[in-house]
Amino acid sequence: MEVRSIWTSSALRDYLDFPYAAQVFALRREVTEIVSQKCRSETVYGLSSLPPTRATPARLLRLSRGHWTIENRLHWVRDVTFDEDRSRVRTGAGAQVMATLRNLAISLLRLAGAQYIAPALRRCARSDSLPLRMIGVRL
């Protein structure tokens, strides 16, 4: 279970040496593990170029939570399912090309309705035609 609290201020705007900084915030997360009842908390600090009229505390909480959607839906899949961190491709543009190909595969699987990438990859590996059908090639 997680409880989040946020404090925002635009009063520090004139003291910050960041271009376009409109407000600062402190976000506190208090997490209780349901099974073990172990508690932990952390406070993170940030700044936003959005003024308080466009980014209320509630919106900043939603934006910070939504930020992790990218991490969980893309980067985690690349790290765990594709084992990207152990890739030995390092010369030239190879690493960037491989990252692009992994992103393409994830995007195609998501567009095809895959909720979980690992089983969808295994299903594609067992089929001669499924990967081609996903990109519009009919055999």
Short description:
With 139 residues, the protein is of the alpha+beta class. The chain contains four helices and three strands; from the N terminus they run βββαααα. The termini are far apart.
Gap from first CA to last CA: 49 Å
Query: From the alpha-carbon coordinates, what is the Rg to the nearest angstrom?
Result: 21 Å
Name the shape in a single word: elongated
Total domains? 2
Q: Total number of helical segments?
A: 4
What strand line-up does the widest sheet have? Answer: 1-2-3
* Coarse structural class: alpha+beta
Question: What is the residue-mean pLDDT, rounded to a whole number?
Answer: 88
Strand content: 15-25%
Uncertain segments are: none
**Fraction of residues in helix:** 40-55%
Order of helices and strands: EEEHHHH
How does the major sheet shape up? Answer: 3 strands, antiparallel
